[in-house]
Amino acid sequence: MAYTFENTNRINNLTNKQQTVIIENKQKYIATITKDSVMEKYKNFTAANDAIPEKHFAWPLYGEGVDELGKDGSPVERPVPAFSSDELLMRIDAVSLCYTDVKEIKQGPNHPRLTSRDLKTNPIVPGHEVSMTVVGVGSNLTDQYKIGDRYTLQPDVWVDGKSVPFCFDMDGGYRQYAKIGREILKGDAGNYLIPIPDDMSYAAAAITEPWACVEASYRMQYRDGFKNNGSVLFCGSEHTRHGFSIDGMLEEKHRPGKITISKIPDDLRSTVNDYCKKHQIDFLETTLQNLMNSSEKFDDIIFLDCPSNVINDVSNKLNKNSIIAINNKEPLKEHIQIDMGNLHYDNVVYVGTTSLDIDNAYKSHSIRTNLESGGNAWFLGAGGPMGRMHVQRALELHSKPKRIFATNRGMKRLQALRKSFLNIAKEQQVEFVAFSPTEEKKEYTHFLEKVSLEGGFDDIEVMITNVNVIEDSMRYLAKGGTLNLFAGINRGVKAQIDAWSIYGPKQIRLIGHSGSGLDDQKAIVSRAISGELKPGISVVAVGGFNQITDGIRDMMNWIFPGKIVIFPHVLDYPLTALKDFKEKDAKVYAALGEGETWTKEAEAIFLNRELQ
Question: What Rg, from alpha-carbon coordinates, does the chain have?
């Protein structure tokens, strides 16, 4: 076996308790596997004892659509990559299919990350949710890596300040072998490889990346003041009150590099001007018309008693990670328009107050990103792969909601959701309610009315892109509630929002997040090792390498409710829902976990039979 105590201890930042859990689980696992003499094929595979072939298979993307993946519906045979003294050769053991892959394949050369690439002559291999084993070590790396070491990968790789994602700038995981070099081993965030213990299944390791995206959406941090050395705009109107104060915003750590003002009262203008002179901050006074005609964008925009149309127009002048603070005394006559894409992709957030103290907008109500302990949580679109992860995470938290409302339009996915999580919720003493807003409209409406009378939802997690439904859901937020937009809505898609719910007494917050980072995925791996998280529950179907295009089409048609995992070294195996192993392979089915979930034992039996 490839497992050693050294492999265990090189996991970053493990407690003694976590290390003990790994060792105990590993001993149980070894006892299970080694007592079966017919598992030789699998044991050789895990130990990476097999000879490296001269050629391997890959699924390069040559254009737009599934038909442009591979050649004539089949993978392409290529030489196994040669690796240098400073590189590794990895065998890709499992790759999980993702809707990012679907978008990349559907759009091809029209994808924003691929517009400058001629896919016909320089195709890209998609796939970024992977589990890998070291099968070749460059001579300069032998003191750090050895044959049989296992890793997953954080695909959002940055090198010298440039984004070079694994699957866009580098070939991704739809192949059997990959060369790993400096970009990944010595990137801007360090080493983007994350060690995996041998008692974690290949499938579970692969889906730590989407799990990291879920985790990242609850780990965001927001400023409680101006961006340091950033650009601030104070925007007023003919109705702007006198007496606004910025005294609470003058901390050195939140000192901007430039302040622009437009149509603000003389008393505030004088205060801002004096502050800029004192601290040598660039100062500009301009008109709204000149402002809109300029290309300048801002990190903080402070609206002072402005009407909806001004807020809508000026809010287009935002940088990433910006804050919009609405400081109005009364409710607006019309709703404001909030760009849902900016909320999701750019981490823009809206805050506000009725007070003349501008710092109240930033500091009086902190932006909560994690679920409210003992609160009410609603998961919109809970039946899809990512929605199921959000629900599972909520149920496995130490400080969890007291009630979870999971909704999904389609009954097939909703029923699968109930089957997967109802018993877990009972064990965790969480009230779990799941309804379809279309097929169970009466029950759905009645439950919403009940929660609304009790004060509303503390958290609404959004995995859908229907803006009308999102707009309607906001009226059910509790005072101080948070709506977290996880779904990838395109920039430019606007929602009509009652801004009074943001800056008035209710003080709701709308946040969003996209992707994950290295620390997020390390945190997920650590939680999986300790037993706090069971990522394998997310797997609902598996298949062979030749079935990748089938998997992509099934995702486009929403066939499976959870994650599809492909095993690249099983060339041909039809996509199979885990529940269908009951008829297809009784031994694999018997090794599944409670609720027909994927396990290391089921994977071992499956691979031992199907590996080429």
Answer: 26
